[in-house]
Amino acid sequence: MPPLRALVERGHDVALVVSQPDKRRGRGSSLLPSPVKACALELGLPVADRVDDVLALDPPAELGIVVAFGKLIKPHVLERLPMVNLHFSLLPRWRGAAPVERAVLAGDTETGVCLMQIEEGLDTGGVYRCERVAIGPDETADELRARLVDIGTRMIIDALDAGIGEPEPQSGDPTYAAKIDPAELELDWTRPADELARVVRIGGAWTTHHGKRLKIHRAHVEDGRLVPDVVQPEGKAAMPAADWARGARWRPGDPLGT
Q1: What angle do helix axes 2-9 and 35-42 make, rounded to 10 degrees?
Q2: Collapsing DSSP states into helix, strand and coil, what is residue 240?
Q3: Over the chain, what is the mean pLDDT?
Q4: pTM beyond cutoff 0.85
Q5: What is the pLDDT of residues 208-223, one digit of tens each?
Q6: Closest CA to 21 of 73, 88, 71
Q7: Element (H, E) at 232
Q8: Which residues sit opposite 23 in a β-bridge?
Q9: What is the distance between the alpha carbons of residues 148 and 219, in angstroms, rounded to a whole number?
Q10: What ranges in 163-253 are assigned the alpha helix state H?
Q11: Neighbours of 114 (CB within 10 A)
């Protein structure tokens, strides 16, 4: 949402906001709009859930700006409307759906934001601007993403103010950031502690204790072991690991995953 708000505040004419269709969310399973759609409606902007609707705009749009849309833009749309994408990696490293999570999982010490040209291939277009960003040793994927969004928002505004210019072809060997599979979030206690800590940092990590699922929201490495800091027992709210441990009669070093 920050890029959309920034565009409006800067005085750019946002002719249409395209977002994913409403989905059932929460315990009541009510149909709710995406955060982007909710923001657009709050700002009084027209909204659609089909990319093709941009082709019906009169007068035609000059440029499409894509941020974390999650779908490929079809060639017939790109032929009529040039588009740029804000991608959260140092292209061509981590092309694809989960660049932030994959950078954390891989133990990368830096990532970045690239403003790139959209073409038919998956994140293969030329790059207009790019900024490198250090990844904190304990930084979570959500924390990192928030920083990248702020940097990317400024990047979009600066590019529009100065003129986007011509893209430079990507150089280097590409790596692909596949969507995180739920199976990757189960902690494998045979793996080194630093690898387990990176799984926790991307969000959704879990294990079992006495046959019940235990989510681990925060953890740190101590003496070569992963020590939980914030956990969520099955059917309960998140809590400090020390509070859970007292009730569960668990001590650091006791086995989990049982």
Answers
A1: 20
A2: strand
A3: 94
A4: yes
A5: 999 999 999 999 999 9
A6: 71
A7: strand 225-233
A8: 32
A9: 23
A10: 193-202, 241-248
A11: 27
pLDDT digits (tens, 9 = 90+) for 136-155: 999 999 999 999 999 999 99
Positive or negative, the Cα torsion across 41, 48, 98, 155? negative
Alpha helices by DSSP H, listed for the chain, are 2-9, 35-42, 75-78, 99-105, 141-162, 193-202, 241-248
Tokens of 112: 């970045």
Radius of gyration of the chain (CA): 21
**∠ at Cα 77 (72, 80), nearest 5°?**
145
Percentages helix, strand, coil for the chain (3-state, rounded to 5) are: 30, 25, 45
Give the mean model confidence (pLDDT) for residues 93-118: 97
In the block, tokens 């909204």 appear at 47
Distance of alpha carbon 90 from alpha carbon 97, whole angstroms: 14
Cα within 13 Å of Cα(177), Cβ side:
25
